[in-house]
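Lab notebook, page 48
Experiment: co-folding of the full assembly
Goal: obtain a model of how the components sit together before planning crosslinking
Operator: M.T.
Materials (sequences as entered):
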Amino acid sequence: MNQRENFFAMLEGKKPEFIPNIMELYKICVFGADRADQPLIGGLDVFGVNWIVTKEGEMPEPNKFLFEDIADWKDYVKFPDVDSLGIEEAAKIELADVNRDEIIVNVYSPTGLFERLAAFMGFENTLCSLVEDPDSCREFFEAFANYKIACLNRFIDAYQPDVITYLDDLATANGLFMSPAVYRSVIKPAHQRIVEAVTSRGVIFCQHTCGKCEKIIEDYVEMGAKIWSSAQISNDLEGIMDKYHGQLLVEGGWDSSGPASYIGASTEEVVAESIRCAKQYGKNGNFILFPTLLNENGNSLFVGDSRLGPMIEAWHGVEKL
Amino acid sequence: MSKMNEVKELVEAGKSKKVGAAVQEALDAGSQPAEILQAMVDSMSVVGEKFSSGEIFVPEMLIAAKAMSKGVDVLRPLMAGDNTASLGTCVIGTVAGDLHDIGKNLVSMMIESAGFTMVDLGVDVPAENFVKAAKENDNVTLIACSGLLTTTMPALKEAVETIKASGLSGCKVIVGGAPVTPEFAAEIGADGYAADAGSAAVKAKELVK
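Observation: model returned without errors.
Model output:
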C-alpha cells in the first residue's frame, strides 16, 4: 500500500500496513488560509487583526483588540468578499507538484470560531462573553461560520482536497477553556454547520484542538469529524482510540511539553519519542504520528531540522503493523 | 442571609453588576472594609479550589475575579494606607521570547484576589526587568514568571537565576506554564510552582507567610 491506500484503509477501520506520519502522509496546504484567515508571515489579516510570528506559529498581537464588548461586534467586523481573496491562485501555486495518487491533500483552515473571536477581543473578553452574553456570541459565531463555510467551499472547489483540517484550540493543558455545556450551547451549533459544510461535499473533516479536550471528543465524532489532531498526551489517547476505533483517527501522540520538544533535544531523544509513540499508540491501526519538534528557528516541520532525517529513518523501522 | 454572605455569594457567582451595591450595604450595616475584603478573598479561594478541581472553568473564574474587583473599587477609598490585609506586591510577567498572556493574566487575577498588589510587566519580559521592577516597587514579596512554550523554558531558567543572583531579599519566586513541572521548577531554583491559576494563589500565600 502507498500512503494514500494505507490512509483510506485506516479510515475504513481496516488494518493498515503501517503507521503513517504527517510528514510523509500529507501535502499540507496553507496558502488559502494565508489569504482567508491569517497571513503566514504575519501582519494584518483580512479583518484588520495584526498577527505576530513566533517560534511556534502565529498569534494576534497581544493586548490589541478590535472590540472589547461582544455586543458591539457588528460595528467592527466587516466580512471580506470571498471572491477577492485569490484562493484559486493560491491553490494553483500550492498544488503544482502534488501526486494525488500517492498522498493525501490536506488543506488547513486555521482560526476557527473561538480563536477568531479571541483574535478580535482577546481571550479574557471572549471567555467572559461566553457566559455573560452567550446570545451575542452565538450571533457572532453564526455569522463567522457563514464566512468560514464560504471560504471552505472555495477551498474545496480550488484544491479538491481529501481532508480539510479545521483548527480551533478550545483547551489548555489542563482542560477545556469553557465547560462542555457552554461549548455545546454557544459554539457547537455553528461548529456543526462548518463540519457539515465540509462532509456534505465528500471531504474528510479533521478537527485540530490542542490541549486536554477529551470531554468533547464525543461531540467531534458525533458531528462527523474523522480525524482529531494534534492529540496531545494530556488526554487518554489509548482510551479514545479504543472507544472510537473505525470512527476516528487520532493524529498526534507526541509529548509536546516533554524533553523531546525542548530546544536542544538530542537526535536520540527525538528518535526515542517517535518510537514510544509507535509502540504505545500505533498498534490499534488508527494512529497518525504528529511530532512537535522545535528548534531555534521555529517548528521543524516548516523550517527544517537535521534531526528529522534520522527520526523518519527510525520511524520506518517501527511503523510496520 | 447576612450582607457579608451575600457579598461572598455574589463574588463566587461572578455577579459584577450586583457586588458593588452589596458591598456598600455591608458597609452600611456596620461591617469593616478589611472584613469585607477578607470575605471576598475567601470567596476567591473557593473559586480557585473549584477551578483546580475542574468543577468550574476559566470563564467562571474570570467573572468571579471581575466581580471581586468591582467590590474592591467600593472599598479602595476607605482602605487607603491600610495595608493590614495586603500580602505585599507581586511582580508578574511572561518571560523573554514568549508572547502568551492568558495564563499569566489568569494567575495575576487570582493572586491579586488573594490579597496581593500586582505589578504586571506584560509579555516577553527580559530577566533583568523582573529585578528592576522588584527594586522599583514597594514591598515586593513575590515574583511570578510564566512561560507557555518549551522553547522559552531556558528563558524561564534565566529569569529565576537572574532574580536569585540579584541579591533581592525577602522576595520569593514562583513559576508556571504548560511545559513547567515541579521538577523543572526545583531544578532552576524557583521557590514555588503551581499547575494552574487556582493553585498559584494558594502557593503564593503559602510562600509569603
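Interpretation: The interface with chain B takes residues 52, 54-56, 59, 62-63, 123-124, 127-128, 130-132, 172-179, 182, 256-258, 261-263, 294 of chain A (CB under 8 Å).
Next step: discuss with group before ordering constructs.
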